[in-house]
Write a structure and sequence with these properties.
The chain is α/β, with parallel strands linked by helices and 335 residues long. It folds into two domains: 169 residues, Bordetella uptake gene, domain 1 (D-Maltodextrin-Binding Protein, domain 2); 122 residues, D-Maltodextrin-Binding Protein, domain 2 (3-Layer(aba) Sandwich). 46% of the residues lie in helices and 16% in strands. The chain has twelve helices and eleven strands. A six-stranded mixed beta sheet has the order 2-1-3-10-4-11, sandwiched between helices. A five-stranded mixed beta sheet has the order 7-6-8-5-9, with helices on both faces. The protein starts with a helix and ends with a helix.
């Protein structure tokens, strides 16, 4: 009898040790989560634009600094003003190896395209890398336009013949264009392109008359003397453009930014979310990223991640609903 009891105790103790060991192993495995296959780095805009440039810069830094055991693969999905990318992310629910590089179309496209049935607040927030900025640009050949006043005068004289190019329809550029139409009392013809890089090239080629490109999209041409900014839609003058006035300095109450954040699909695991938060925080604090922000006119003064980013998204979704109601959905979609 005693032998049987001892054997039973040994079996029980062995089983307990196995359970404890399994628990320790599982906890250790969770704590050490990292990508097991290439990470799809989805860009909800076309090639050459601000989102594309940012995604490829981050991908390059991840590779250069050896921050991930698996590569990040940039993939452009600009269709439907970012709707293609949003649907794709929704369909990837629970996938720990997909991330989305966002614009403000993260908010505006689901608001306008209700048929998408996408709620951006269900996505997994990782980190906000920057608040991108907007300037009003014209081709440097336009010697007759030297400031905001001469611009508005020219646009009013041209009316619908004046062509403003922008990324997508119902996105940031068309919203800002509609805000200007409402403020100055004119109407223009808005021409959507798949990405900011294409917009910039069309301005230089004189296929459009003006844009509200982000700095990163126009800087190459600006530095070459081919385009010129007239006004910046920021609270204060950016270091990259010390001589260009803000709209508010000129008595125009327009201030608008675009968030550049990283988000995962709905249902991403907590372990993966935490790993990505740490990764992008490291990138955010890097010398290379901060230098890029200064040179390209991005606001990178506050790191926002996880639950704080979720709260930011909630507030911005509400604000963009109000903006769209204010200028009218038709004004920003052209329909």
């Amino acid at each position: 009898m005693s032998v049987l009891i001892n054997k039973t105790k040994k079996v029980a103790i062995s089983a307990l040790v196995a359970v404890v060991s399994l628990g320790v192993f599982a906890t250790s495995a969770q704590a050490e989560w990292s990508p097991k296959k290439p990470v799809e780095f989805i860009i909800m805009a076309g090639t050459g634009g601000g989102a594309d440039q940012i995604a490829r810069l981050l991908q390059g830094l991840i590779e250069k600094k050896k921050l991930s055991p698996r590569p990040f693969i940039p993939i452009n999905k600009p269709g439907g003003s970012g709707g293609e990318a949003l649907r794709y992310l929704k369909e990837k629910a629970g996938d720990d190896h997909v991330l989305l590089v966002t614009l403000n179309s993260f908010y505006t496209t689901p608001i306008i395209q209700t048929g998408l049935n996408v709620d951006p607040l269900t996505f997994t927030p990782v980190g906000r890398m920057a608040l991108d900025t907007f300037l009003l640009w014209v081709n440097s050949d336009r010697k007759d336009i030297t400031d905001l006043n001469s611009y508005v005068k020219m646009v009013k004289s041209e009316g619908k013949n004046w062509k403003v190019g922008g990324t997508g329809s119902g996105q940031e550029d068309s919203i800002l264009t509609a805000m200007m139409e409402k403020e100055f009392g004119y109407k223009v013809t808005y021409i959507p392109f798949p990405g900011g890089g294409t917009v910039a090239k069309n301005l230089i080629g004189n296929h459009i008359n003006s844009t509200v490109n982000n700095p990163a999209e126009q800087n190459e041409f600006y530095r070459a003397g081919q385009s010129k900014p007239l006004v910046q839609f920021t609270g204060e003058r950016m270091a990259a453009y010390p001589d260009i006035p803000t709209a508010k300095e000129l008595g125009v109450d327009i201030e608008y930014y675009m968030q550049r954040s990283i988000n995962g699909p709905p249902g991403m695991s907590k372990e993966a979310q935490e790993w990505y938060i740490n990764l992008f925080k490291t990138l955010y604090e890097s010398e290379e990223w901060q230098k890029f922000c200064i040179e390209d006119g991005l606001d990178c003064t506050q790191w926002v991640a996880g639950d704080n980013l979720a709260n930011f998204h909630k507030a911005q979704l509400k604000r963009h609903k109000e903006l769209i109601d204010s200028v009218g959905a038709k004004a920003i979609t052209g329909e």
